[in-house]
Model the fold of this input.
Amino acid sequence: MFDAQLTVTTERLVLRPFGPQDADRIRAIVESGAIFLPPGAPTHVAGITPWLTAGAHELQRSGTGAHLAMTDAEGLVVGAISLFKTSWTAGTTEVGYGVHPLYRGRGFAPEAVTGLADHVFAHTELRRIDLTANLDNTASIRVAEKAGFTREGVLRAAVLEDDGPHDLAMFGLLRGDSRIAKEVFPHHELFTARLRLRRPDRRDLPGLAATGADARTQAFTTVPRGYTEADARGFLRHVEQARADGEGVAWTVEERDSGRYVGSVDLKDTDWRMRTTEVGYMTAPWARGQGYIGEAVLAVARWIFDDHGFQRLQLRAAASNTSSQRVAEKAGFVREGVARNGGHGEDLVVYGLIPSDLVGKTSL
Done:
């Protein structure tokens, strides 16, 4: 089993067992309604003492894990981290974590996960650490990525919450893994005068399905024929997996004032060494002719050039798709040539955009 006094010290944190000395802090947490303590933690002040003296240590006594307080330099409990589902025979365990809402965004969770993983591999014979996170929990997924875990797949509709089933992203860390986190695009909202670009989610399913099933979209893209909401759900899983693999990132484009879905923009085929990537997009039928997607593409271009040091953004459009070509040209892309039979037997017009092309160019 894990040591009853298991303690891990990182640069800014001490991970240690909960104890009676935490009573006042846990009382304040319970009374505030903050949710981040491990499963089984008290929800009423009457349960604090029994939990600190017994409940918080049941995992350790059973040999299946340990609940640890995440404390800062002043000894204040700012989070919690746990090992659980430990199989000493198989050599595996799972890690979970939570950070007090007032202390999020400071990198405490990845620091704690990294420190605890290092301790596990240094002081036990365990060979693998599992980590799971709701697919729509961007913050938790980023913790796994920063801690060097490898994303291994998605369990569809694996957890049921108040708002319905959620997909679960599966991560793993093996003894001997390089622990070097791959470069990935963060989920980052972008804004223009008329638009908000945000992370795609389930509220986009009707808009995605209608756009994907539209005759023009079907004619000029490779989306599945007879596109449905099931295909849209597959798209959401695909773009998140592609982001986790470092291949790109996607945005839903919506009107700032109304929140109405007007299209999607995504980056793909990213080369992080050369700092090049390609942009693709779909425009909702009801939003065509208003310049929305060109405006969104230009916002994405400025973001990757200014914030991520990219040197080239490529765009390809079917030779027969003059509307898509106008999007590229209005956004400032330079026509560079034609890739013959570049896509499903059709010629593709190749456009490129580099940072100097945007010098002096105002937003659309």
